[in-house]
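User: Structure please.
Assistant: Input sequence and predicted structure:
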Amino acid sequence: MDFQPWFVGARCAPRVSALVYEGAATAVASPRALAAIAEADIIVLAPSNPLLSIDPILAVPGMRTAVEGAAAPVVAVSPLIGGKAVKGPLARMIEDLGLERGASGVAARYDGLIDGFAIHREDEADIAAVRASGVAVLATDILMPEPEAAERLAREVLAFAARTVRAAGRIS
């Protein structure tokens, strides 16, 4: 079933048994996108649904490799607070697919890709699990109900990325 009929028409009623990113394997990464990744100072993976927004991009040949090989720090922001999606069907999809739950499960999807992960400050078990995996953690308020909160989080993520890079010795 295509996404829109499942999400809108069926209101996520059928259980998700698999995801297929049709066309991703034959897609071609834009040279400009690859150049932007290579030249980036910081790469931030937004708190989007990794299954529906981030993974399809990384499935395009060359994209994940470009991010993995970038000199810039890669920081992701969790789309979950207390194991629940702030918006959308992510928590339901994780359950349906039998994937590792919570912010630590999202971080595990990005294994080998991220240097840091922003997690809601009250998700203590996820914070500990991600730190134990060797990924730096920014424990903060990741909820962005208004533009000011989004600006605050963006400033925190940028400062965290700069600290993470210096600590890892990747760039000065």
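The chain is about 45% helix and 10% strand.
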